[in-house]
Amino acid sequence: MKRAVCLLSGGLDSATALAFARRDGYACYALSFDYGQRHRIELEAAARVARSLGAVEHKTVVIDLRLFGGSALTADIAVPKDRLAAAMSQDIPITYVPARNTIFLSFALAWAEVLGCFDIFIGINAVDYSGYPDCRPAYIAAFERMANLATRAGVESGHELTIHTPLIALSKAEIIRAGLALGVDYSLTHSCYDPAADGRACGHCDSCLLRLAGFAAAGAADPAPYRQ
Question: pTM of the predicted model, to two decimals?
């Protein structure tokens, strides 16, 4: 059985990407990050999702991106609320964490090399997204080229590492429909950038609004608990 490292935040998209990897016959090694994010309650969701979808192993890397700040998720900066969809994709929002996907993929690459596998799954999306530059196909293609140049496995094994982005061209509604068909329990996931202390989602940040709109368009009820 082929192995794959699957980046797992605990959110809707990463849970669905993990389900895609399982569907495609991979033994899944889930990788999460405690990076100082204000919504670190998502890590509890990641653990639930990893168990539910049968990950072989689930590791959580601890790093502190609050040392650098620069984002509403890693600094004392207000999370934008109640923005229109057009505004979300108009510019790079303050919830963008500098170089986050590059950092996460680098760790995933290291673990994949140790595991002797050549497949990484990441749940990024370039359709219903918040304008992040590291969610674009061109970025993934560039990182994949770098990975095959910069690792011993890439140079000596004769195999090429592939970064799988099964959600990249899907709308949020399409992602949700696919996940439901694959048996994803979205009640286990957490997407909010600014949750209450008890974990309930705010319902007003970009992530909440995209999630709610996606469930509505998919004709399904969002099982996440919201403050209102």
Answer: 0.95
